[in-house]
Backbone:
């Protein structure tokens, strides 16, 4: 808010910078969630060993696919953000 109580409008550079940061965040999270469940890092996860009764669930291909699907959604959001930035 400005001193007169009128909301200030962010500059075009500020808006563009925030869109680019969001875009990079979506792409990074998407790639990690898409690829991580299929690596050895997922299989040898320390946190999975803390609850061994859930081991079969956490290592199942169904859960890996669900996590990868969430990664695909994040990648799709990043692609849509690229399209939205290019339209302006």
Residues:
């Amino acid at each position: 808010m400005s001193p007169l109580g009128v909301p200030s409008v962010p500059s075009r550079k500020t808006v563009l910078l925030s869109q680019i940061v969001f875009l990079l965040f979506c792409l990074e999270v998407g790639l990690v969630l898409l690829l991580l469940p299929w690596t050895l890092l997922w299989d040898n996860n320390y946190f999975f060993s803390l609850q061994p009764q859930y081991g079969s669930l956490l290592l199942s291909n169904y859960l890996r696919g669900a996590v990868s699907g969430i990664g695909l959604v994040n990648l799709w959001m990043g692609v849509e953000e690229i399209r939205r930035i290019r339209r302006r």
Summary: The chain has a mean pLDDT of 91.
